[in-house]
Amino acid sequence: MRSYKNIMVTGGSGFIGANFIRYALKDTNFSGRIINVDKLTYAGNPENLEDIINDIDESRYVFCHKDICDYDEMNKVFMKYDVDCVIHFAAESHVDRSIHGPGEFVRTNINGTFTLLETARKNWLNKPDTLFHHVSTDEVYGSLGETGYFYEDTPYDPRSPYSSSKAASDHLVKAYHHTYGMNITMSNCSNNYGPYQFPEKLIPVMVLNILAEKDLPVYGDGKNIRDWLYVIDHNTAIWNIVTKGRIGETYNIGGENEWTNIELVNTLCEQMAELTGKPDINYYKKLITFVKDRPGHDRRYAINCDKLKSELGWKQSVTFADGLKNTLRWYLKNSEWIDHIKSGAYMEWMNKNYNKR
């Protein structure tokens, strides 16, 4: 099993990154230091790690407000903290945003990954006990029909500026392994959900709109299928890969939990009605509104994660029923976090993306 002293987590103030940092510092045997590098774009929120900032001293957690595209700044971080592992979460990740403005996705996801790889390559010369772990998405594989699954050797077929930028970054990481001998691992995950998720993704969008009794926008016929993975299960998988995964290998991480969008929205309406004390379980379903579909909307994603299970002994620990209840209760208990999130950036995006559909 590999161990590290100074792990750089990029995008550590975002949804998945913040949950990973909390897990690594509080729920594993890791005794080293986390260096959180985050530009703090709209999705990066220091409040996501308020408990870590208050509870963990600087010998174990450091925040660096930096842009991963800035080579000089990344080099300073590597040298100052003697980074021996990078876990690369930082990415522009919303398909709709990539359609409206693909340039930032190319900059962050491709150029940013290249900058980190170059920084690591030059700092890790003659340092064999290092690792670059790249976090990617199942969307690079394209779209599935009614049957079948994505495997690690499924050919890439990205359909959006977002998935194309992630596919390019995946290939860069693999190239640095094959060309320069860099120790790398990669993971491709399905749709994540859980606490602290910025409300541009399906579940938090619906939760916030339900609380405000606003329309619940469902794309197209609502029958697009996604595989849902609780964020904590994602993070336990990454920890397994980083500490035990085979160098140069890719591991798929999935929830094995497929839902059509409309089935999920109906379930959210029912559970929120129960949690908010509505007498009618169907109370919020009147808010469901079908809107114009996203261009090139992939029909179905489904991950096969047998490799991760058989090689590393990982398995999902949270059922979808429990994970969803945990998530909804978290949003209901954290109204102050929601109020801070619902800033100009959030409202501007909601108006831009949904008002004309």
UniProtKB/TrEMBL annotation:
Belongs to the NAD(P)-dependent epimerase/dehydratase family. dTDP-glucose dehydratase subfamily. Its cofactor is NAD(+). It catalyses: dTDP-alpha-D-glucose = dTDP-4-dehydro-6-deoxy-alpha-D-glucose + H2O. The keyword NAD applies. Residues 8-326 form the NAD(P)-binding domain. Gene3D superfamilies: NAD(P)-binding Rossmann-like Domain, UDP-galactose 4-epimerase, domain 1. InterPro entries: dTDP_Gluc_deHydtase, NAD(P)-bd_dom, NAD(P)-bd_dom_sf. GO terms for molecular function: dTDP-glucose 4,6-dehydratase activity. Pfam families: GDP_Man_Dehyd. Keywords: Lyase, NAD. It is an enzyme of class 4 (lyase). GO terms for biological process: nucleotide-sugar metabolic process. This is dTDP-glucose 4,6-dehydratase. It comes from the Bacteria. It comes from Denitrovibrio acetiphilus (strain DSM 12809 / NBRC 114555 / N2460). Its EC number is 4.2.1.46.
